[in-house]
Amino acid sequence: MLYYIFDWLESLNVPGARLFHYISFRAVCAMALSFLIILLAGPKVIEVLRKKTSGEEERNLGLPGQDLKKNTPKMGGLLIIGALLIPVLLFNKLDNVYVALMIFTTVWLGGLGFADDYIKCVKHNKAGLSEKAKLCGQIILGFVVGCVMYFHPSVEVKESYSLPHHGTTEEILTISTTDANIAPAKEAVSTSKHSMKTTIPFVKNHEFDYAWFTRWFGDEDGKWSFLFYIPIIVFILTAVSNGANLTDGQDGLVTGVSAPIAVGIAVLAYVSGNVVFADYLNIMYIPNISEIVIFISALVGALIGFYWWNCYPAKVFMGDVGSLTLGGIIAVSCIIIRKELLLPLLCGIFLIEVCSVIIQRAYFKYTKKRSGVGRRVFIMTPLHHHFNKECPAGQPTVLDRKNKKPLHESTITQRFILLSIICVVLAIITLKIR
User: Which among 27, 91, 279, 429 has the fewest CB atoms less than 10 Å away?
Assistant: First the structure.
């Protein structure tokens, strides 16, 4: 909204109006505003949520301090969504297809998570929304995202381009800090191409084309590659969204882990939408993708602000309305910037949390079928609970900690955040490791 106002002011030669053409300026403004919204509105919203959502009965997991959290308000993810969407509506170009897709993702998964939390926390029905209903909602969103990315005419990449070696430093900096379409004459770029190529780490050519799946069947143009592309997108979105949901089990955990991931996505989006850095890193240049930097910057501000209230001891929990939305935003933004194959590294914590649950269930079923007594690999899953709970007497696990005392949840959270930062750094440097 403000972008269009300042664009009009620039046409009237109003001094300073051109600032809104700079991605970096709008990104910083969006991040600062989202942080301030949560910081200032947090106490009042938390108090309202306390009256509506606290005090319901929860399953006793036998975790230290669980009883103390009974009256902590839930559904704090509404704070994140509100603090995210307000700066986005103010600072983003809303006619951008990628921004529209991100807003749709936020609202869709926010609504799905809200329905689940409302049933659990307000209606006091422990069952909440059924797993099938959640999965169905995620699959529908994945299908929509896949179709938009595959069929929308505005979704293009420029695979062959180069910068002129002449020109002043000021001209080159103009290309690198503003929207790519501000100075099109300074670029020597090939015709935009609708392509399903994506970035693949650790290989020389650095790209993978989903059309490869159908070329095996004689489809040289890849016209039928959507039959593989869309299901893959559905799987990625569902996996990451549920991964974030599983990680949300301790004060500040999913918030602290997601903030570095969002910063990493913002960096990747910036270099992919910037012709100077794309040329230097020898990666595909994606026109109009820089608007995602502003969206993700607002998310970073919202996460930092929410961590203020969510760190130990938490004043509010985000609930499914926050965790499902967070995972979905992370997944869709990586799909948009063609970095979805980096997600296992970028979201390494989400991956190990999901894998811990899968391993635990599979091993329990296998041992029960074979010996009649089910055994566990971990004391409890998701993985963060393994370090937070004492091993019950007479129930040994494969990864028994023996006489070691369980770690405090704040210690687990901080260590997981550090691991998340390491994963994000490794994901970013893969742009040069081939």
Answer: 429
Percent of the chain with pLDDT over 70: 87
Same-domain status, 294 and 378 = no
pTM for the model stands at 0.90
What is the residue range of 398's domain?
363-403
Supply the pLDDT for residue 59.
61
Is a pLDDT exceeding 50 seen at residue 176? no
Tokens 């948009």 belong to residue: 336
Shared-domain flag, residues 386 and 307: no
Indicate the average pLDDT of the chain: 86
Q: What is the pLDDT of residues 216-235, one digit of tens each?
A: 777 777 788 889 999 999 99
CA 406 – CA 174 distance, rounded (Å): 54
36 and 172: one domain?
A: yes
User: Quick one: pLDDT at residue 397?
Assistant: 78
For residue 158, what pLDDT is reported? 72
Q: Is the pLDDT of residue 269 over 80?
A: yes
**How close are the terminal C-alpha atoms of the chain, in Å?**
41
pLDDT score for 171: 44
216 and 132 belong to one structural domain? yes
**256 and 297 in a common domain:** yes
pLDDT at 421 over 90: yes
| Residues with Cβ within 8 Å of residue 209, at least 6 apart in sequence | 195, 196, 197, 198, 222
